Amino acid sequence: FHPPTIPIVSNLTGTVATVEQLTSPGYWTRLIREPVNFHAGATTLTEHDVTTYLELGPDAVLSALTDQPGIPLLRRNQPETHTIVTALATAHTQGVTVDWNTVLPKTPTIALPTYPFQRRRYWLDRADGSADVGAAGLGAASHPLLGATVELAETATVVLTGKLSRHSHPWLADHSVMGTVLLPGTAFVELALWAGEQTGCTLLEDLTLEAPLVIPDTGAVALQVFADTPDGDGRRALTIHSRPADGDDHPWTRHASGTLASSSEPAQTSTLGTAWPPPGATPIDVSGFYEDLAAAGYHYGPVFQGLRAVWQDGDDLYADVHLPDEESANGYTAHPALLDAVMHALAQAAVSTGEMGLPFAWTGVRLHAVGATQVRVRITPTGQHTFALTIVDPADDLVATIEEVATRAIDPAQLGTPDSSRDPLYQLEWVEIPTPTTTATDDASEPEIVTLRAEGEGPHDPEHVHALTEQALTLIQNNPDTHLVILTHHAIATTPDDPIHDLPAATTWGLLRTAQNEHPDHITLIDTDQPHNKDLIPAALATGEPQLAIRNNTLHVPRLVPTTSERQAPVLDPDGTVLITGGTGTLGALVARHLITRHGARNLLLTSRRGPDAPGAHDLAAELTQLGANVTITACDTTDPDALADLLDGVRLTAVIHAAGILDDATITALTPQQLHTVLRPKVDAAWNLHRLTQDHDLAAFILFSSAAGTLGNPGQANYAAANTYLDALAHHRHTNNLPATSIAWGLWDSASGMGENLGDADLARLRRTGISPLSVDEGLALFDAAIGLGRPHVVPLRIDTAALSGQAGLGMVPAPLRGLVRAPRRRAASAAEAASSAAAWRERLAGRAEPEQRRLLLDLVRTNIAQVLGHASGGTIDADRGLLDLGFDSLTAVQLRNQLGAATGLRLPTTLVFDHPTAAALAEYLRAELAPAEADGHAALMAELSRLEASVSGVLPAPEARGEVVLRLQAIMRRLGGGNGSAEPGAVDAAVLESASDEEIFEFIDSEL
């Protein structure tokens, strides 16, 4: 106890407490045992001119007992942050001085948009499935869950389609089981009943649910309901399927199957009677029922909380169920939330026994009325887990009868996402592709073939890595306009057991992947298993693939595929020590906590450049110690082998996690050797030292925190890509030498992890447009556990937005490893003929047009591409005379714009295009000078036509029997134009041509000579 610094009015005496009282254990004992004298205390506060009361407690209890303004700081069942900030705001309005700088610390500066307000409407209209689909030859389904219907020709099969999402049908989010939002089973019943309505079948004879349908957090699922061809008795087989709405390459999942039939039974009458509740039935308390369900993992929001009362009479249950007022039943035969709440009468008994189940099989469902919002129901057991239901409205008229519904417990393992086949944990597979039988026939100059390999003793040592990677950088920078074919030998692993013989050359692959993305079609990477075998290089180039491996005279290309292996995390020795480099960083700290709480680590050695002087290091050590671990934080330069050896002397390691690294981004043309080595050093040198100095330790895990930048070749990060590709290669090297190793090539993490904290909104938007979405902290840690349990040397945790990726595929902008994840035309390297054809098409389009029209066409092209790169809605918003840097361009987006304009026009554009021509108008004028030089209109048109003809001839060679005729006609044209200038002399005709020509062709040739 110590003397108070703030006066305290005692709730024991009702007066200001003395120092002696507050520091006496006896006083506090009395305070616990004796009544609270609140009135006297409030009176004393009033006498001291206290006019505002702040109640510190778990709920608002005392505030209501005084006439003075009372402000409760916390409220029961309300978020703490909301109530605390509300309390402070209320105090502020009552004249209390609040230190807002502490409450709301200074936020980072946010860059304002670089263009003026566009005054456009961005509100999202709620999709209700009522869109006009007639133009597509479909019928409107006229149902809230469905959009269209079509009857297939010749079979009379009826197909109903729809799209479900939390945005279009927000009430679905109120149905969550074990933390996963599921389409309720009653929605399948509703879909089946509506299909029966459309096909004249009034009886749902049976329906069995086969797999849950998960409603994803983002995106939508496509839905199909099939009512098959009727049999001789008019019965139709029914199936219900779904797949991700953007997943054209995903298989359909069948969720339910059943039978629709016609029913000729006479209309039934109710058997519940008008007396309600039923006489003699015993009421069952359902207060707190939905809270109990939530505790059991069944979270039902307001729309699904329709159970109002339950009674029991013998084995029968009776229930009163209402659809909430805010939810409309219009358009439904029986609203799924209402029917689901009917089943809650069964759940109220099961939840207390732990035998909670969900309905999965329905038999004999007949609908007698539609659009009900309030119903009464009788539930009669027919077996251990089966029940019959009679449902009526408040007037005792039948709504529905169900002969039998069966329930069963749901397996949480089934509650994967609908995109479960697209697990965010990937592995890189090298897929064999057919070897082309023909090679390119372009007239362009032959590509320059360069071999990269480490030389000298100890080829894997870091100094060789630095030297060879700098050599690759210099090669790219000195040959900006040359098509380079770069060969390596066993620098990549095409299988987990494929040995890597050259770690320095492996590192160059990361740098060169970035160069490929910044300069498409300039670089082809080929790794061979025979150092001097170049026989397959022409065939490899003919594939148009930017990255290939030659193994056993076959071609292989890299593709990311979801991991499929069994997952079992390694067991860490609790007496051993886990070393984490970069341990005081945000990600290192996250993993340290996770190792303690999830993997039972008890001894942690965290290193960083500043060690205990790093920001937050002291608090981190205290927190980890509180969790039960022995923690040492030390400064160590792990790139120095002697310093690292001293650190590890006497330490018994059970695991190593290398999470250190730094960034120093630049495009490859601007990247300096210093930037290259600065980023390589903490990744490459430190990892090699860790590898060499821990080989004698009995390690359960050796984990390298790599980046997907190396696998994909992130533009603007050539040095970072190279450093992380080295880690991937080192893990393969260890794996083939029977040493534990896992390189986790992380994708983007959200800002809470610290991995994405340096990215602004513009950076995140650009990444989203490329198809890369951030991982949450919980996702990342779960993927960490999965990755280290796979036993593979290289895995890639990466969240991919397939819709955005498909858009990039349409532009030909998808890195090679991602091409297996989208269905889009494969982008292949542009041949000389194709480039000439694109340029010729533009020259032909511009020929004969006045200069203002030429400028308008090219300015539209430039604006459209600028809008695509910056993510603007349309090119019309781009000011033609405003600087591109002012619009938001940087070195990366400048590269992207140049690449897109080059692909569109067929021109080989300079790397400094955007900086040399810094406005849309200047770019358009530059393109006009290249595509429509200032010459006479007739001459320009003729040159454009000749370019088109040349491209056609280069691309399609005539058959031998027709070649003579083509040559003769071309030579005749040349003589008419200039009397043979620039061609062979009249008599210098190829004898082989004349020998193959027909009589008519020879006479035509003679006439042309005369």
Automatic annotation (TrEMBL):
Residues at the catalytic site: 175, 340
Positions with biased composition (Basic and acidic residues): 243-252
Residue segments, region Disordered: 241-278
Keywords linked to the UniProt accession: Phosphopantetheine, Phosphoprotein, Transferase
Domain PKS/mFAS DH stretches: 143-416
MF (Gene Ontology): fatty acid synthase activity; phosphopantetheine binding
Polar residues bias: start-end ranges: 259-273
Domain Carrier: 856-931
UniProt cross-references to InterPro entries, sorted A to Z: Ac_transferase_dom_sf, ACP-like_sf, Acyl_Trfase/lysoPLipase, KR_dom, NAD(P)-bd_dom_sf, PKS_dehydratase_sf, PKS_DH, PKS_DH_C
Top-level taxonomic group: Bacteria
Region (C-terminal hotdog fold) location: 281-416
Cross-referenced PROSITE patterns: CARRIER (PS50075), PHOSPHOPANTETHEINE (PS00012), PKS_MFAS_DH (PS52019)
Annotated GO biological process: fatty acid biosynthetic process
UniProt KW Hydrolase keyword: no
Residue ranges of the region described as N-terminal hotdog fold: 143-267
Protein name according to UniProt: SDR family NAD(P)-dependent oxidoreductase
Organism: Actinomadura spongiicola
